[in-house]
Amino acid sequence: MSASQNASLAGAATQPIAAARAELLRRLFPDGVPVLWCPPLSHYDGEGRIDGARMAAHLRHLSPYSKGFLIPGSTGDGWELSDRERRQVLELALDQAPRLQAHVLIGTLKATAAEALAAIRQDIDWLQARVGERDVDKALAKARVCGFTVCPPRGKDLAQEQIRRALASILELGLPTAIYQLPQMTQNEMSAEVAAELSQRFENFLLFKDSSGADRVALSGKDLGGVFTMRGGESEYARWQKAGGGPYEGFLLGSANCFARELHQVLQDIAAGRLEAARRVSERLSATMSEVSRLVAGLSGGVAFAHANKALDHFVAYGPRAASVPPPRLHSGSRLPVEVIRATGDILVRQGLMPAKGYLDS
């Protein structure tokens, strides 16, 4: 049999998987998959406890522009939260999701596949009890949970076959799943070949997010059989969407915590062919994120992109008066330095992105 015949047979074999995936996506997202997703920040009160009222206000502020939340994501301290804290932020999100008409992806950010599997099984038990439904699919639907997000296992020396087996073991649960490329935390990347192979085997591999900044999977040209792809890299937002000639279908961005309205506008402009307008806003957002990220690069504890978004969200919450409000508390127990807050305010003013008032003042 020739190579072309083999390729043809392989393509035919994957067609039912792609069709089943498309049907599952339609069932989970009857109005279409949101094109802008946000991993909301976790906010803490002065004692270091989860600040539920502040987080609820933040979700309400985001909801007109972002209808998909990854909770907890890396920007929401998903790698640092205790099991109790993680459950608290999920409780809060699931309480808010119905009234905000939002979809929740549960972040299962663990160092190994075994840890991720254990956490997912515990979450399923908890969700079933929470909504009073034993059927897993019905329990997820009642809770407005559209799936679970996992990363490749952590380890800079892992072979691609080890990454493939680890992710396959999670997909074998049959639950709707998003795979999150995050080498900043996992110290590795899933190859385009592994991504394509998993997409050909598992119809429940629904979403793919890449925060690497290298975008190797999306740029490879590999056919993922209708997996919905989202970029997490914080740069040049206008160039990456399919509607504008790029390889991605949506965004899942930490910066949506602070610039959901602006990113929503970028997506609308791209969809309408207003590419120059999208580029101008994109340039301001990219410059802002780059400058603020440099401000927090040397801070210890947690991850830099979470710190950058906390600094920016401080102004989104309090507006121009934010510099006179105590800086936000980090999961580590410390607060962002006052100097970082002041410099962030200067950047927002210079880029024309300082809000007239904050969402806590509305």
The CATH architecture term is Alpha-Beta Barrel
> Spans with pLDDT under 50 lasting ≥5 residues?
1-12
Largest sheet: 8 strands, parallel, barrel
Care to count the β-strands? 8
Structural class: alpha/beta
CATH topology value: TIM Barrel
Average residue-wise pLDDT: 95
Radius of gyration: 20 Å
Distance between the termini: 68 Å
The CATH superfamily name is Aldolase class I
So how many helices? 13
- SSE succession: HEHEHEHHEHEHHEHEEHHHH
Folded structure, characterized:
- There is one protein chain.
- The chain has helices spanning 3-28, 52-62, 83-100, 113-131, 136-143, 160-171, 183-186, 192-201, 216-219, 256-271, 275-296, 304-318, 338-350, and strands at residues 36-38, 68-71, 103-107, 145-150, 177-181, 205-210, 228-231, 250-252.
- Helix 4 packs parallel to helix 6 (160-171) and helix 11 (275-296) packs across helix 12.
- The model is unreliable at 1-12 (pLDDT under 50).
- The protein contains 13 helices and 8 strands.
- The protein has an 8-stranded parallel barrel with strand order 1-2-3-4-5-6-7-8, surrounded by 5 helices.
- It has a single domain, classed as TIM Barrel (Alpha-Beta Barrel), CATH 3.20.20.
- The protein is of the alpha/beta class and 362 residues long.
What attributes does this structure have?
globular; 362 residues; 13 helices; 49% helix; alpha/beta; TIM Barrel; single chain; eight-stranded parallel β-barrel
Structure described in brief:
The protein has 362 residues and is α/β, with parallel strands linked by helices.
